[in-house]
Amino acid sequence: MSSSDPIEQTVQQSMTLIRRGIDELLVEEELANKLRRSAREGTPLRIKLGLDPTAPDLHLGHTVVLNKMRQLQDLGHQVIFLIGDFTASIGDPSGRNVTRPPLTPEQIRENAETYFRQASLVLNPERTEIRYNSVWSEALGTRGMVQLASRYTVARILERDDFTKRMKAGVPISVHEMLYPLMQGYDSVALQSDLELGGTDQKFNLLVGRELQREYGQEPQCVLTMPLLEGLDGVEKMSKSKGNYVGITEPANTMFAKVMSISDTMMWRYFTLLSFRSMDEIDQLKAECEAGRNPKEAKVLLARELVDRFHGAGASEAAVEDFELRARGGVPDEIEEVKLSPAPRGIVAVLRDSGLVPSASEAGRMLAQGGVRVDGSVVSDRGLELAAGTYVVQVGKRKFRRVVLG
């Protein structure tokens, strides 16, 4: 087909955008053909993203795949935000060396509501189809579940990397965990998806969906995996449990300061995966920094974009002022207040329980480095106890809490 053909030009432009920042796309030519057919027939592709509502709050790492969904949505395709209320009751074993405990129906419902509300900060909610996989999964019944299980072999299931590792280590694998990839794959059959997105840790499950569609006589979906975003430490993947995350509902000032704390090198990965700027703009910005422009200026642009996206246009103005004030050693006007009891209370417990550090060991490290201040004075004694009262406690340059002990 001629490259001057309008449909072919549209397809190639779409593929360029789709490839941005991805880890893997299987199979590229199949997706290109789906796009050609979509353009000819005027029928949007059905793009599926499944999320088990296992945690109530989203961070920037979660938005990597949501950003890709938004790009596909803007190309005119039908985005399906699938809430795995049924699969969450099984527990996804991906990347785990122990059985994941299932959630209660109440936890699932609460988390699902929060998930979509926060995801709507990235997706266009009016153009997003919301589905719950309990609708067709529960309808399968015992007979349907057995018939589904007959379409995939145990040997194929055990090819999963995490299952293989657990078997070698002698760690038990429950039978219900083997059903998880089958149920996620069946979601693709029920939704007749053309393309499914997920993190790199979901690749096996996404491919199961592709195979099950073939078994059910459907055209197999393509699979697109997005990389797992490193956290603020630049090493481990972003995670609340590791304390290296940026929550998308955190205060604007906190979000801005956290983004500014990433390294100059990691900044470009954040630009690629999180920014809505074009790659040409990002490449130009990078070239300017390599030619001598202060990388901090580029980082400010990134932090401003993210703050304005999640907190509204103009929210970054106050965040910049707050950041600069803290950088000069000043105490911001607005500080989160935390009430703790009983008093007196050890400084290590105060730092941990106020959320200034993720653990007692980190509290000890910050104290030893002279990175803790109480009412402006440096504190290094791990044995210090604070009496009842109100204190401004600071960790590093940018973390503050007004701690009320009583």
Automatic annotation (TrEMBL):
Q: Which reaction does it catalyse?
A: tRNA(Tyr) + L-tyrosine + ATP = L-tyrosyl-tRNA(Tyr) + AMP + diphosphate + H(+)
This protein's major location comes to: cytoplasm
EC class (word): ligase
Similarity section: Belongs to the class-I aminoacyl-tRNA synthetase family. TyrS type 2 subfamily.
Q: Where along the chain is ATP bound?
A: 240
Organism of this sequence: Lautropia dentalis
Tell me what this protein is called. Answer: Tyrosine--tRNA ligase
Motif interval(s): 'HIGH' region: 53-62
Q: Which GO terms describe its molecular function?
A: ATP binding; RNA binding; tyrosine-tRNA ligase activity
Chain ranges for the short sequence motif 'KMSKS' region as given in the UniProt record: 237-241
Q: What is its EC number?
A: 6.1.1.1
Keyword check for Chaperone: no
A Pfam family reported for this protein in Swiss-Prot or TrEMBL: tRNA-synt_1b
Q: Which GO terms describe its cellular component?
A: cytosol
Q: Its biological function? A: Catalyzes the attachment of tyrosine to tRNA(Tyr) in a two-step reaction: tyrosine is first activated by ATP to form Tyr-AMP and then transferred to the acceptor end of tRNA(Tyr).
InterPro entries according to UniProt: aa-tRNA-synth_I_CS, aa-tRNA-synth_Ic, Rossmann-like_a/b/a_fold, S4_RNA-bd, S4_RNA-bd_sf, Tyr-tRNA-ligase, Tyr-tRNA-ligase_bac-type, Tyr-tRNA-ligase_bac_2
